[in-house]
Amino acid sequence: MGQNSFPKTVKQSITTKIQAMVNKKAPIETEDDRKADLQRLKECICNRKNTTIRCKRCANLFFGRILRTCPSHQNVVFLHDMHTCPVCVGPKGDLEELPIDFETYKKLVQLTPLRR
Ligand SMILES: [Zn+2]
Ligand SMILES: [Zn+2]
Q: FRET partner for 67 with CA separation of 20 to 30 A, picked from 22, 49, 86, 90?
């Protein structure tokens, strides 16, 4: 699709670095530690899928992800995640993710071209 925000290798190297940091600080793992780790990984949103985003200010649609801090990897930033609307530069708070897949998104965009 060409919509991925990062080449996979970069993502993986960041994840590996983070994991190395996490592993360093806890050399001895108890059962509770492992459970806590699993819980944190479950909350990981780094690999969430792109979705349709609507700006409430200019009503334009985009396909991608709204910038959000991952509870598991708080130092990881995905540069292509949206922190403002690309058209009206409205704040992130005015962007909303809609459960619309890429195929439907393309059709919607054809029906409603960008209003700049
Ligand atoms: Zn994560
Ligand atoms: Zn906008």
A: 22
Dist. CA 60–CA 100, nearest whole Å: 14
CA of 23 to the centre of ligand 1 (A): 15
pTM of the predicted model as reported, rounded to 2 decimal places: 0.63
- DSSP class per residue in 45-114: -TTPPPEEEEETTT--EEEE-B----SS-TT---TTSBSB-TTT--BGGGEEEE---HHHHHHHHHHS--
Ligand closest to CA 18: 1
Q: Break the chain into its structural domains and give their ranges.
A: 46-111
Assign domain 46-111 to a CATH class: mainly beta
